[in-house]
Structures are given as structure tokens and as C-alpha cells.
Design brief:
alpha/beta
Length: 250
């Protein structure tokens, strides 16, 4: 039944999604030119509210839980598991007050209305995975902005999306680089549950009538710990949370 509904509702979702991207592309450009970083960021926040709302067209629901008293005057490294591209808009919108920037593939910074513009001009680290020197340079640039402007970062240490919801081993590299340059950054795990089910059948049809959730977990103070220990602890907390949430294959 869900798959059948997907055949009907997916085109409506995609039309709405693309309209959002097309409408906000010039809005972002104008906001950046006329109002600088603050205006541009606000336009991106609003865009991602609309992009998140496209999930509801499919009968899907979103819950974002953040019961942690996180600082807004201190850089945060949000570490999340990665299940689909639909992980991203809720993270941007609901974590907006922390000025969180992504480490993303450089390919995404070209040719996608709104998304590419934000990645190029919004402070993201756009890395070329085939060029380690360029990747490190981009991450260091982000770390510099985090240190000087109290920006935060959102990192998917699995590297690629999990198609089944089962977590892949977390890589330490980018997180270790940032912690070395911003040692006072707070590390905060985020558990994402059931986003993978939205693309269970691929890009068409999208799955329908599923509940997706994002939960911000207890912060980790990295002081006195190796980056490997911090990342492993974040991974374990996310896994434990997903077990409680009942994240099962199928």
C-alpha cells in the first residue's frame, strides 16, 4: 500500500521540492548581495523549512528532539549517522541557531539550484575526495571560521549513506582535523532514524506514511581524549539510541 501510494504522491513531492529550490535560488542571491551573511543564512533556514515540509506530501512525518542545553557561543561538531539526502534539511533548519556548516562533496557545489549556491557561499567545506590536499585545505578553512566566528559543523563520519539504516564504521579524519584546530569545540552526536525508509525503493517511488526522527544526544567534552575515542563514543551513543528507537531493517 505504501509503495502504491508512493507512485501517486512522489511526483507531487518532487514538483514541490524543485519549486522550492528554484524559488529560493534568486532569493539567496539577493539576500547575500543586499544583506550579507545574516540575510543569506536566514533565507537558507526558511528554504530548509519548506524542503522539510515536502516530506509531509508523502504522508511522512518528522520529529526533531533536542533536549540538550547546548551553547550558542561555542563551536559544536554535530556527528550524525547518514541514511539519505533527506537527513539534511531538518538538520539545517532545527540546528539553525548554531550556524552549522556541512562537509560535503565538491560535486554538490555545482549545478543544483539553491543547494549548490548555499554550499559555495554559505561556509561549507566542499571537499574533493580525490584530492587530499584540497580536502584538508577546505576543512581547515571551516575550522578557522569555527574558531573565529563560533560556527559549528555537521559531519557524517560514515562517508556514504546507509541504505538499510545499519550504521557503518565512523571515520575519524575530518573530525580529528577540526578538533586539532578548534580544541574547545563541543562534540554532539545526533541519531537519525528511518530516513533510509523514505528511499527504500529508490528515488521512485518514494516511500510513504513513515515516521522519521532526529534526536540530539548528550554532548561529549573532547578535552583529554583522543579524537578516536571521542568519535567511537559518539558512534556508540548513536547506535544505542537507534536500538531504543527500534531502527530495524525492513
Amino acid at each position: 500500500m505504501r509503495k502504491f501510494s508512493g507512485y501517486i504522491l512522489t511526483p507531487i513531492h518532487y514538483i514541490y521540492f524543485v519549486i522550492c529550490l528554484l524559488v529560493f535560488h534568486p532569493i539567496q542571491w539577493l539576500s547575500l548581495k543586499l544583506g550579507g551573511y545574516s540575510a543569506h543564512k536566514r533565507s537558507v533556514d526558511i528554504l530548509n523549512w519548506f524542503l522539510t515540509s515536502t516530506y509531509y506530501v508523502l504522508g511522512n512525518t518528522v520529529s526533531f528532539s533536542n533536549d540538550q542545553n547546548l551553547p550558542t557561543d561555542r563551536s559544536i561538531i554535530f556527528i550524525a549517522n547518514h541514511q539519505s539526502m533527506y537527513d539534511i534539511p531538518p538538520l539545517i533548519y532545527f540546528l539553525r541557531k548554531y550556524h552549522a556548516k556541512f562537509i560535503s562533496k565538491i560535486e554538490l557545489a555545482k549545478g543544483i539550484p539553491s543547494i549548490s549556491f548555499n554550499l559555495k557561499h554559505g561556509g561549507a567545506a566542499n571537499i574533493d575526495r580525490k584530492d587530499p590536499k584540497q580536502s584538508i585545505s577546505e576543512i581547515l578553512k571551516l575550522a578557522k571560521n569555527m574558531k573565529e566566528k563560533s560556527w559549528s559543523a555537521i559531519i557524517f563520519p560514515e562517508g556514504t549513506r546507509s541504505k538499510t539504516g545499519l550504521i557503518k564504521p565512523f571515520a575519524v579524519g575530518g573530525i580529528a582535523t577540526i578538533l586539532k584546530k578548534v580544541p574547545n569545540a563541543l562534540v554532539v552526536p545526533v541519531a537519525i532514524n528511518n530516513s533510509w525508509k523514505m528511499v527504500r525503493y529508490g528515488n521512485y517511488p518514494l516511500n510513504t506514511f513513515i515516521h522519521m526522527s532526529w534526536k540530539v544526544l548528550q554532548p561529549i567534552e573532547p578535552a583529554g581524549q583522543a579524537a578516536e575515542e571521542v568519535v567511537l563514543l559518539a558512534e556508540e551513543r548513536i547506535k544505542d539510541c537507534l536500538k531504543v528507537m527500534g531502527n530495524k531493517k525492513g
